[in-house]
Amino acid sequence: MLVALCIFPFSASAEETVSVSIPVEIEGGGTAVIISEVNCPLPESSSVEVQDGTTENININFSVPGDYTYMIQAESKEEAHYSPEYYTARVAIRTGSDDKLTSTVILTKADSDYKPDRCLFANAERSSDEPTTQAVTPTQAVTPTQAVTPTQVVTPTQAQNEPPTSRPKTGDDSMLDIYLLICIAASGGLLMLSIIYSVSTSKLIGKK
Fold it and tell me: What is the mean pLDDT of residues 33-45?
């Protein structure tokens, strides 16, 4: 009896499991696929069909504490693909104070730190099907003949036909009067010097 009492509780604890559900929604309906890393418990089904407007759960059972990582994708259709490309589900299994397993699930959107409460895939058209020839129209975007009109901006013929108003004339004689006054003043000065010199000389001769 003592041996049985020691064995049965251990067996019950070893068989204890905890179930984790990952909710998935697909706009327009589709198939969700889950990909597990190495040494991760496998889900009950590797894929699940999701109808438009409904939520389906991906269920996984865990019996060993640890950290597990999964990737959830939506299978693309021929005419459309889904965004985002995938979600990452990180599952933490721990043993509680009552020796029961507890679970924590953290969902992360692809290439971001956003943590939603479910995997929601939006239906979008393929980017490769979008026309690219209409995106840029170089002939309409730039019209060089209209953007710059050199003949209207600068008119060299009109600018050169009118000489500047301050340009001096070659026949201007306004400086001759000044030169003539200088010559008269100089001549008068020489005349006065010659008279003074002659008077002084005659006085000297008379004294002798």
Answer: 92
How many CB atoms are closer than 10 A to CB 84?
17
Structural domain contains residue 207: no
pTM over 0.85: no
**DSSP for residue 183:** H
The per-residue pLDDT for 81 is 83
What's the CATH number where 46 sits?
Answer: 2.60.40.3050
In a domain, 140, yes or no: no
Q: How far apart are CA 146 and CA 152, in angstroms?
A: 11
Determine the 3-state secondary structure of 105 from DSSP. strand
The total of structural domains in the chain comes to 1
Domain boundaries, position 70: 18-126
Measured between alpha carbons, how far apart are the two ends of the chain, in Å?
A: 179
> What residues have CB less than 8 Å from 44, skipping those under 6 apart?
59, 60, 61
68, with CB counted inside 10 A (0-12, 13-18, 19+), is: buried
Q: What is the mean pLDDT of the chain?
A: 76
Task: Indicate the pLDDT class of residue 113, thresholds 50, 70 and 90.
Answer: confident
